[in-house]
Write a sequence for this structure.
């Protein structure tokens, strides 16, 4: 009898308290907050005068057209303001979210140019990692995590410009 009473009392107490302070709602996880972005990246995204998207081959550098040691399958400059805004918004909204894995097989790249200076993003949606170049004086890459949510928007823009995409990773 006492076990039932204790269990019932706990159940009523939990119901009376309402949403869990850890989850925000009963049974639901809160939206994941992004990690802070490296200094200068947000500004580069918001104020880019020129944006180029790259489709990359994730394995092995071949040929003359390379983007940070990855073969460029094709690229497109986003001259249309709507396309540029869509791509930047998708990438900006995904950066700093998620937790990256150890692999790095990037299939996407983005170059943001402002005032003759460029910031390059080499993006692997498979492992949720981005290497950002052009933020530091010695041009070492800075690692940022990313959600996979931006991949569909970038693929749509690249495909719409007849840029070939790398083969999807084997599962």
């Amino acid at each position: 009898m006492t076990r039932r009473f204790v269990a019932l009392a706990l159940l009523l107490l939990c119901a009376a308290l309402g949403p869990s302070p850890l989850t925000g709602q009963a049974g639901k996880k809160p939206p994941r907050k992004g990690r802070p972005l490296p200094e200068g990246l947000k500004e580069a995204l918001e104020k880019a005068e020129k944006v180029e998207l790259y489709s990359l081959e994730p394995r092995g550098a071949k040929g003359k057209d390379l983007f940070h040691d990855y073969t460029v399958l094709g690229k497109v400059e986003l001259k249309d303001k709507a396309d540029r805004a869509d791509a930047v918004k998708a990438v900006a909204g995904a950066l700093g979210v998620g937790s990256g894995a150890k692999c790095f097989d990037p299939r996407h790249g983005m170059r943001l140019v402002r005032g003759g200076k460029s910031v390059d993003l080499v993006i692997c949606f498979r492992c949720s990692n981005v290497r950002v170049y052009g933020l530091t004086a010695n041009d070492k890459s800075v690692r940022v995590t990313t959600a996979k949510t931006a991949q569909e928007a970038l693929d749509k823009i690249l495909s719409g410009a007849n840029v070939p995409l790398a083969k999807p990773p084997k599962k």
In short: The two ends are 52 Å apart (CA to CA). The longest strand covers residues 50-57. The first helix runs from residue 2 to 17. Helices lie at 2-17, 41-46, 81-94, 151-160.
